[in-house]
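User: Need the bound-state model for magnesium ion:
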Amino acid sequence: MAKILEVTDLCKTYITNKRQNNVLRNVSFSVEEGEMVAVMGPSGSGKSTLLYTVSGMDSMTAGTVLFGGKDISALKPAELAALRLDEMGFIFQQMYMLKNLSVLDNIILPARQSKANTLSAKEKLELGKELMRRLGIIEIADNDINEVSGGQLQRACICRSMINDPKVIFADEPTGALNRQSSNEVMVELCKINAEGTTIMLVTHDARVAAKCSRVLYIVDGNIQGEYNNTGSDEKKRERALNNWLLEQGW
Ligand SMILES: Nc1ncnc2c1ncn2[C@@H]1O[C@H](COP(=O)(O)OP(=O)(O)OP(=O)(O)O)[C@@H](O)[C@H]1O
Ligand SMILES: [Mg+2]
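Assistant: Bound-state model below.
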């Protein structure tokens, strides 16, 4: 399988109040097409920063990130913006949904912005509705963003992340704000999307969520301390084995 993401010696340093904070320290890993990778680790260890830098949302201090073989730090801002719009989907903690648009219009916004998306305006609307039906939220298509529940909003974010048929979806704690049932439902959908071929990289604090992924990266102090491959199809066994490994990692 081809590598969709190849990260080598990635460093990210924030300077706050003249103090240097080395948040990512020479992180190297790669992700194969079709994988579903979970990033875990203590709060403040650099998980969100890792997602932001490998997806080009934030700049890196040093190192290389190849996305589909392209060096993202060599791209011009407009090229990077196009790559993110056309080949990446995002489900992030702060939702970045626009308040003056309906849920459906928010979902299809990336399709309207993409120059590579050749669907007609009507087809984009239809696709948006189709995704909403699939995620079970078609009844809120015309609602405002503040007229929906957290679980519905999270599903709307998944629809939006899929609208341009991305190669990779990056998700930062996609189930973080959800109760157990909504969390399970969202994970069922993400697993289906992954099974259909979309690579997924997600950050989570929930071992049950991570157990559904093919691989887990454990980050401590801006470094990958360990990697774990989930094996077997029995969900309970996978969870137990992963939990044991996480305990060894200091979870
Ligand atoms: N924009 C920023 N400017 C300065 N420092 C930042 C910025 N974003 C994050 N940091 C710092 O980088 C470190 C890692 O933050 P990050 O958000 O990546 O952690 P995390 O592993 O996602 O934590 P959590 O599990 O709590 O979400 C923290 O020390 C944080 O204070
Ligand atoms: Mg975070």
